[in-house]
Amino acid sequence: MTETAGKPSTRRGSRTKGLTIERIHTTEGVHPYDEVTWEKRDVVQQNWKSGETIFEQRGVEFPDFWSVNASTIVTTKYFRGAVGSPERESGLKQLIDRVVLTYVKAGKDNGYFAADTDAEIFEHELTYALLHQIFSFNSPVWFNVGTASPQQVSACFILSVDDSMDSILNWYKEEGFIFKGGSGAGLNLSRIRSSKELLSSGGTASGPVSFMRGADASAGTIKSGGATRRAAKMVVLDVDHPDIEEFVETKAREEHKIRALRDAGFDMDLGGADITSVQYQNANNSVRVNDEFMRAVDEGTEFGLTSRKDGSVIETVDARELMGKIAKAAWECADPGIQYDGTINDWHTNPETGRITASNPCSEYMSLDNSSCNLASLNLLKFLKDDDTFDAERFQKVAELVITAMDISICFADFPTEAIGDTTRDYRQLGIGYANLGALLMATGHGYDSDGGRALAASITSLLTGASYKRSAELAGIVGAYNGYARNADAHKRVMRKHQAANDQIRTIHTMDKDIHAVATKAWDAVVKVGEKNGYRNAQASVLAPTGTIGFMMDCDTTGIEPDFSLVKFKKLVGGGSMQIVNLTIPRALKKLGYTEETIEAIVEYIADKGHVIDAPGLKQDHYEIFDTAMGARAIAPMGHVRMMAAVQPFLSGAISKTVNLPESASVEEIEDVYMQGWKLGLKALAVYRDNCKVGQPLSDGGSTAKDAKDAKDAAAAAPVEKVVEYRPLRRRMPKRRSSQTTSFAVGGAEGYLTAGTYEDGDLGELFLKFGKQGSTLAGLMDAFSIAISIALQHGVPLETYVEKFTNLRFEPAGMTDDPDVRMAQSIMDYVFRRLALDYLDFDTRSFMGIHTAEERARQLETGSYEASSTDSDDSDYDDDSYSQGVATNEVKEVKSEVATKDETITDQSGAGAASARAVDATVHSSAELMEKFQGKASDAPMCMTCGTKMRPAGSCYVCEGCGSTSGCS
């Protein structure tokens, strides 16, 4: 896209000013809708606990490459009109047209385009990008734009409150209206005088914490009444406020109350009958710390708490002791978070208008009081080309297209209050961001917590914001700079130079990030040059939001800046039902790392079984970090998250919605250190969560409470003692004469012999192992091992148990074998039990374990199935359009596959095989519950109040995989 400001266009219908829009994805004369295949789907959504159907709409139209989850969430969340009425939207075309055509009309009406043909190209490019899940606007756009309702486009709001009863009551009212509209708001209460100060009448002030009770009750009442989501709010208090200690400990004290009530038998689960008696549970709390306080903590000195009336010091506290209380409260209940005032306002483009004092509920939007921000996020994986290079030029063009649309939306948007509308129209704050960073890093072979991963993330973020401000400067030359620019011009240009200088400080490592960084450098050069001439259209351009619901709309594997949640995911099927699949970026990453098809197959099968990569066959330990995740056996360390945030923060207008997770064993001192490191590394905000620190997080069954447990315990104590019958295994001895076979083998150059004896029915009953050139000690150990295994087999221990335990056992000698069915072994034990599985286990059992003959593997590559063609008739119950990863159940019936999107369907090419997908247990309804199964412990996440599914983290919020509901404002 190029600017033609001040230059006449030669096109018909030209204006003297306007953008000339270039085509990125589309072809002249061809509408994007005509390039895809459409299909009708039935969307039926149930609450799995009650069995109640909570939504049903049949015959909705979507592209064939959209997943079931994406189409379900878009239909239930974003289609407008009463279900069953003629006005109800019935397909994606109607939804996209409703939004895009509104943007195009507003762009034409407000002089954004050089000619009508540019408006048409803009329409087609925006439609294509939305249709192909390249980006998405935030949820309020889909809720409201193009409808008869107020066309609110912003998800994030910042309010203000002064030290007067009128202002406090107005705060309650404004929050209520914002919650009713399905959005969230934040504000700073530090202007309200403390409980240690006097009122003008002579009495003592209530203090901000007391007024928080009323606002919390209001949010609790409204949270379930909206049509779209629960209320979300952020409450901030400055660290020098005299009531800071009371504020810090507010939610921690309530957590103590929750535990006491739970132990007394009350139902204190989230959504439980008695949880409403607990206060302050509807807001995120953050302490706004300044550099003076952080230096006092670092140096161990005292710090003054100041009067709200005259700024005098009311009380002096030990800074380290206060920081210790903040960390202890966060250790107990995850609140409060930290906002670093010095860094926030050092990067503020509008200091002459006012300071930044607060944020939205998820902490990514930070700007002036009484303002709002509309968000949009790009799907990073859509810019990864087939040759595993990142298309930086196309990424820049799409960012410029999207930021143009976002700015246009302010021209027609409605706002919940007059003050918010005035500030937003005067400063035009935008929040472009991205999703799928974690998936992109994994797919390209970068560890999330690695120098290479951080360099790539920094380069992409720098290019995103550089491209956005470049377009903002171009727009300023066409439709004018934002109204508040003139009084803030020097500060705004200073921040642009700071971004440019930060870009120069990026230390690239690989070709990919070097190429992206080169494009970003050119973009920032243009930002400073064009901005010096035109000014800027937008006071802010970029944030990193949670991308909860819209992440599902774009079929993203990961949200916002987050790493992958887990390596094994929960997925719904077109014809109903569900399966667990191995993250589809894993085979792509393994292929890029140079692994063979056979090794990729073995690794993916191992991950499907174990949920992690530790000791995966053939996987180098140096590559483990690439597959680290937010949860599980190789969870990313807390500082790994902090370092990633620090890598991208200098390239964002706002901040980052993210929670740093710590293990349950983490200490208060570790949380304090995370907060200190966040300050030293230049973050704007930081929140932590220690596993199992909260009580009100129910387990997957959603039904157990402390009262249930107490009743069960009492019943058990009162029950009569029953007679105990002890069962012992009986040994089935081998016959005197039995059949056996001996197999010679070589593993990594070491030769040996395996002799296996069977019963009359062919079941394995004994084995003997002998190695060439073995000494007496090793021979004795092998004899003892063989006898132990043989006796256990004769006592009924299943062979498959030993196969599970001894396959993938790693020690020398290891490597290539001379067996065509087992080409590589991690150890002699790994080979022996794979060979025994192939010889003595049925196809279904060993296929479930991912063990196949050479002939079966060759058949799978040719036909997509390990089984012979005679069994293909077993698959007739499944759609030809079902997923392309064959499903392995306990009976291991292979199913035919559904061809999904190009990004989604790489299993056949990678050799991922049958174990990449298998049927899930009936009690599993989400990836969070799947991880519970692998880890053997409950995950700390709330249950969705709409469909009963356990939610999973998305930034500093939670998102439901079942229906797309979020606990925040994404």
UniProtKB/TrEMBL annotation:
Residues 860-884 are annotated as: Disordered. It catalyses: a 2'-deoxyribonucleoside 5'-diphosphate + [thioredoxin]-disulfide + H2O = a ribonucleoside 5'-diphosphate + [thioredoxin]-dithiol. CDD domains: RNR_II_dimer. Residues 43-133 form the Ribonucleotide reductase class II vitamin B12-dependent N-terminal domain. Residues 734-839 form the TSCPD domain. One of its GO terms (biological process) is DNA biosynthetic process. Its cofactor is adenosylcob(III)alamin. GO terms for molecular function: cobalamin binding; cobalt ion binding; nucleotide binding; ribonucleoside-diphosphate reductase activity, thioredoxin disulfide as acceptor. Transmembrane segments: none annotated. Keywords: Cobalamin, Cobalt, Disulfide bond, DNA synthesis, Nucleotide-binding, Oxidoreductase. Residues 872-882 have a biased composition (Acidic residues). Residues 154-689 form the Ribonucleotide reductase large subunit C-terminal domain. InterPro entries: RdRp_reductase_class-2, RNR_2_N, RNR_lg_C, RNR_NrdJ/NrdZ, TSCPD_dom. Its EC number is 1.17.4.1. Catalyzes the reduction of ribonucleotides to deoxyribonucleotides. May function to provide a pool of deoxyribonucleotide precursors for DNA repair during oxygen limitation and/or for immediate growth after restoration of oxygen. This is Vitamin B12-dependent ribonucleotide reductase. It comes from Janibacter limosus.
